[in-house]
Amino acid sequence: MADNCTETPKKAKLVLEDGSVFSGISCGAEGIAYGEIVFNTSMTGYQEILTDPSYKGQIVAMTYPLIGNYGVNPEDVEGRRPFVEGFVMRECARMASNWRSCQDLDAYLRENRIIAISEVDTRALTRHIRIKGELRAVISTEELDDDALIEKAKSSQGLSGVDLVREVTIAKPASWNKAGRYHVVVIDCGVKFNILRVLSENDCRLTLVPASASAEDIMALKPDGIMVSNGPGDPAAVKDVIKNLGLLIKKNLPIFGVCLGQQLIGLALGAKTYKLK
Prior knowledge:
By secondary structure, the chain is α/β, with parallel strands linked by helices. The chain has helices at residues 46-50, 105-111, 122-132, 146-155, 165-168, 193-201, 215-220, 239-248, 260-268; strands at residues 2-3, 11-16, 21-28, 32-40, 58-62, 66-67, 86-88, 91-92, 95-96, 115-118, 135-140, 174-175, 182-188, 204-210, 225-228, 255-257. The strands form four sheets. Strands 2-3-10-7-5-4-11 form a seven-stranded mixed β-barrel. The protein has a five-stranded mixed beta sheet with strand order 12-14-13-15-16, sandwiched between helices. Helix 1 links the parallel strand 4 and strand 5. The longest helix has 11 residues, at 122-132. The termini are far apart.
């Protein structure tokens, strides 16, 4: 068991573009983080959420009130590293206790330079997001002036029209496993590792390709099927993948998608997407 408590907690603030201000204490790294504020209702799995590439560009607030109680381990990751821009908690556990735990959450956040805030009224924050929809937000442990932080949130980029897939996809093709009856090419838009594990368990040999891979490059791998992975951001901004899917659909191969991948397939077929709250 490890005690994460600091002697003099550092103040931090979470400020939304509509002027909402939530005060708390700093966890993890120090500095300023920008992102679209969203919430997650999971009771467990905070490490999987932190490392899910789909959360690139977003600050994630956990609705469950106690986070970090079972620590962190090397197995429960869903990506190459944490991708969230910031992390919001009601309480970051002061002690981590689990037989698989190798590190406490606060140390993990600091090691990966993730700025986080705890002691936030996450119930009020979640209700606010449910009514208003996702908002641009900032977490700061440095600048604590409300008006200045509201302006920073208002002037931040947001996600609409931004291709975040480029920031999470792999750089070059790679094999996930080398055995399996069916060869599936995975277009990596920010794939979660568990999707790859499940495909592997179902007799699939997997080759991952970058989101920038052309239709010709993918067909040269002689796939039995193509999977378009989950990923972050605005699907309409991922124009290269949409264009290549339009060509691949004509090859009469099984193509399936998860989350962002399904949206990209829809766009390639002529559908339109719009942002929900």
